[in-house]
């Protein structure tokens, strides 16, 4: 089979397209013929030096394809099933940038009817991250779905990104009023296409005033991608007992915040990453994301606010470079037909 690998960390030039034996599933494992692989920022960050410990790595946490073989003891999955993958390269050397991948059965999720492989390869890391960001408060829901966020106001920073897009769609599906901050009219149009009720261009005027004009009683949940830059804004607009969910460090690795303002609002800060997420919380997120896909509430493409950028497997390095360079939309690798 064809696979993309790297044997040392570094720039995208360390990625190589090679031929490897097709892996065999063991007990509790499933082999998937990968049709699409998704590229996330963690993929290039791991490749650039954040991850080591393997002689050879095939990148890719997300993907979609068809079950090709099932190991002993696996139930609920059968050869021929259309599936999507979650955390495919977590704790193992080989992810989705290959024609076949062997995964623990719990990382292989049936793809609902009507959902194509582009969508399946786009929802793993972004949608599960967005789910956790929206469900971490003791005053909020443990699960998402119609009515779960009814009457709540959700602020999504960077609504034109993949996680922001998923957060908008999941919050809207769950009944929230959604505000998204953006840096341009073009990105504002993408956030609206995703389902945002209101957008605020944070590069113009006073964004706190603009958000407060829409949500005078404050925001219940802020989904934050750039805390080093935005924490003061979050403190200004989040209501008492509100939640700020921080999932990335865009714009800086250190955050300084006024503590008294946070004390005064009984504010909850949630820092999140999927790789150490409790297995029960991960399963709940996967179940809710699957339900949202089945309901047509999670979509991809320009009309859903997330333009798609396709690369062949042989150009995985260019796909990594596009994500590292901040391309707007979702980068996918076309692995097979």
Short recap of the structure:
It is an enzyme of class 1 (oxidoreductase). It contains ten helices and 15 strands.
Question: Can you tell me about this structure?
Answer:
The chain is an alpha/beta fold. It has 2 domains: 2-122 and 306-334, Medium-chain alcohol dehydrogenases, catalytic domain (Quinone Oxidoreductase, Chain A, domain 1), CATH 3.90.180; 132-275, Quinone Oxidoreductase, Chain A, domain 1. Helix content is 29%, strand content 25%. The protein contains 10 helices and 15 strands. It has helices at residues 41-50, 117-120, 124-134, 162-173, 185-194, 207-214, 227-237, 259-264, 279-294, 316-324; strands spanning 2-5, 16-19, 29-39, 62-70, 82-85, 100-104, 108-110, 153-157, 177-182, 198-201, 219-224, 238-246, 268-271, 308-312, 330-334. Strands 3, 4, 5, 6, 7, 14 and 15 form a 7-stranded mixed β-sheet that branches. It has a 6-stranded parallel β-sheet with strand order 10-9-8-11-12-13, sandwiched between helices. Strands 1-2 form a two-stranded antiparallel ribbon. The longest helix is centred in the last third of the chain and has 16 residues, at 279-294. It is an enzyme of class 1 (oxidoreductase). Keywords: NADP, Oxidoreductase. Residues 10-333 form the Enoyl reductase (ER) domain.
Features:
alpha/beta; seven-stranded mixed beta sheet; EC 1.6.5.5; Quinone Oxidoreductase, Chain A, domain 1; ADH-like_C; 2 domains; single chain; 10 helices; Zinc-ADH_QOR/CCCR; NADP; 29% helix
Q: How far do the termini sit from each other?
A: 14 Å
Quickly give the CATH architecture of the largest domain. Alpha-Beta Complex
How many alpha or pi helices?
A: 10
How many distinct beta strands? 15
Structural class: alpha/beta
CATH homology group of the largest domain: Medium-chain alcohol dehydrogenases, catalytic domain
